Amino acid sequence: MHEPSLIALEYPKILERLARHTSFSAGREEALALRPSADPEEVRRRQAATSEAVRLLRAGSSLGLGGAHDVRPLVEWAERQGALEPHQFLDILSTLRAAGQLQRTLQRLDETFPMLRGLIPDLYPLPALQQEIARCIGPQGEVLDGASPRLGAIRAEIRTLQNRLQERMQTLLQRYRAILQEPIITQRQGRYVLAVRADSKRRLRGLVHDHSASGATLYIEPLEVVEMGNELRELELAEEEEVRRILTELSEQVAGAGAAIRRTVETLAQMDLILARARFSLELEATEPALVVRREGRAFLLPPTGDTPGEPPAASPLPPGEPPLFLKQARHPLLNPATVVPIDVYLGGTFHVLIITGPNTGGKTVALKTVGLLTLMAQAGMHLPAGKGSRIPLVEQVFADIGDEQSIEQSLSTFSAHMTRIIEVLQKAGADSLVLLDELGAGTDPVEGSALARALIEALLERGCLTLVTTHHSELKAYAYATPGVENACVEFDVETLSPTYVLTIGLPGRSNALAIAGRLGLDPAIIERARRWLRPEDLQVERLLQEIQREREETRAALEEAAAAREHARHLEKRLEREIHDLERQRHEILAQARAEAEKALEEVRTRLEALQREIARAGLTREELAQARRQLEEVQEALPEVPPPPAEIRAGEEIGEQPLQPGDVVWVESLGTSGEVLSPPDSGGQVELLLGRFKVRRPVGDLRRTGRPETPVRPAVHLPAPPQSVPLELEIRGWRVAEAEQALERYLNDAYLAGLPWVRIIHGKGTGTLRRVVREILASHPLVASFEGAAERDGGEGVTIVHLIAR
Description:
The chain is α+β, with helices and mostly antiparallel strands. It has 5 domains: 3-126 and 257-284, Orthogonal Bundle (MutS, DNA mismatch repair protein, Chain A, domain 3), CATH 1.10.1420; 147-251, MutS, DNA mismatch repair protein, Chain A, domain 3 (Orthogonal Bundle); 319-519, P-loop containing nucleotide triphosphate hydrolases (Rossmann fold); 654-707, SH3 type barrels; 731-806, Ribosomal Protein S8, Chain: A, domain 1 (2-Layer Sandwich). Helix content is 47%, strand content 18%. Mean pLDDT is 84; it is low at 405-411, 644-653 and 710-722.
């Protein structure tokens, strides 16, 4: 792709936004290096992978790459026969474990995730190497005693000798206490010494290793322990040599697996990029576009891969006259979504050139950039902030000449800067190019600029380029109206408020509005009327026609909006009526059920009394026929009791969430769990909602929820949660994880630990910057399953570990 055009369209800013969603450095590098592809198969693969990842995230998957590192430089160092440090082995171990976890997750996916499952063969968790590193290196980066028999033996000797040395030094400390500056045993230069007053140094025979700053204290190693000190130093040197040998051997194993580790890191980075594109899609509320490709001179439509998960959608010819570029409700991805005005754009059907006119700051350039940027995003595998049904043609090149990208540093005028770039476009652009020209013909004489603009548009039209042009030249409006293959468009302006509406309308040229604006600002009407007399009659007629068309369009738009509002109001009333009917039906069911229960209770009392009377009647000589008749009368009473109808099927189901957002405090029905719960927070960017079910906090996708339309009764139904794993560990390590991944893992772990009956657990979050510790403790402070928590003792990890006490079951 044409790099200056990528910069002019702000594509690097899109990559920066995308890179924020990556999990580790290699993934970030992949994101920043992502470039649009013109290969249809590659673009489809990218889009399919993004859609599969979006489906996973929306389903509540905890898929992540926590613990992954770019260890390729470490592998390269090891291959150069360099020994790695212990903490570097921990990075390699963490990366291999992340690869193993990802591999297991992908293996559980079904055949509707072919792109993600296709990454499995390129993941090499190397369990043997993992086991060897874990056997030799401890979690704090220390070489373990069990790394080799020799190292274990040496350290055992060191501990024994240190104990003997300490005992001997204690004895000497007591013996020479009178001449000591302080009654302590310390070390200098790796030797055990006593702090002796300088004026008493001759009373203790030994080696002086150091002195205090004032010279009043000498640090002396008594001669009685010099030999033991020498032995200890020899053992320490032997320990260092053995540790270095172990690290060298481990480094050789890493070097031997270098190719597999590199491929694994590359695959993790590829997966990180796919997940980043999916998260970016959810952030933008984006959709997968259809793609239009040209084969043998014909245009074919490739539907979105998400429409048929697991199966590549079949291509079909694009109907004649249908535009290959069709964006519905497209939004510029870098602008504030709360204020940006969506636009509808189509190009390439009955016309190949679209000329946009309108006021300054009216949105012409934004419309131009939106089309260019969304084309680049689609070919890079990103979803688009546009409505469903949008489609993008695959182009070989995107050329953009944007007005605010002038070559000031080259001391060129505005016109010269534009012409330099346009000449390059004409040299390189073809039928498979998208050309975006901002303020064509500006910066020079209006007459010559307009003529030159027409000639340039005709040259691009002859080449078959898809072209969008913005301009102020009114002559081009008439040219577009009279020329086949060229169409007018405008960004609308509200004369009453003197502000642009940013709405793009295709088929109408923009009005100048200059005289109307001058009048609204207070210019003398006589001057305005004098200016009108200088206008050509045909110009005034065209202006009046455009004004009338614009007025009719506004009235039509207002009528459509009113009709849409009426439909929405009717839908709301229909839903409310359905809820009321459901409530009445449930109340009827409850009343009948209560009546039946009372009748059955009364009947049971009668039956008991009848049995008692039967014995008395038998003694009174009542015949069997008379007794049978009494029983039949009782059965008739029982059969006459009303049957209670079953509860309405839709009472539990409730209504779909719809467009009305969920708010904290709303009560919803959870389909998968068969119970209701209270909403604690609105849906996040992944479509997950945090709920309170009884005393449990859970996260469920919006698609699993239904509105109940009423608060639940105080007696809560039983919550059927999945059973916890048979073995729940006593600690959860989330050190180095992303905050979002850590939050989800912590919620699941606390629920599992509570169900497993654990009284307390440890959360290992590390010290670092303290962000992860703060997030963990904020969650714990409000969690209904947590009784209390505190930081661990220093020997158990200090502020890098939080001890959590769970409530009793």
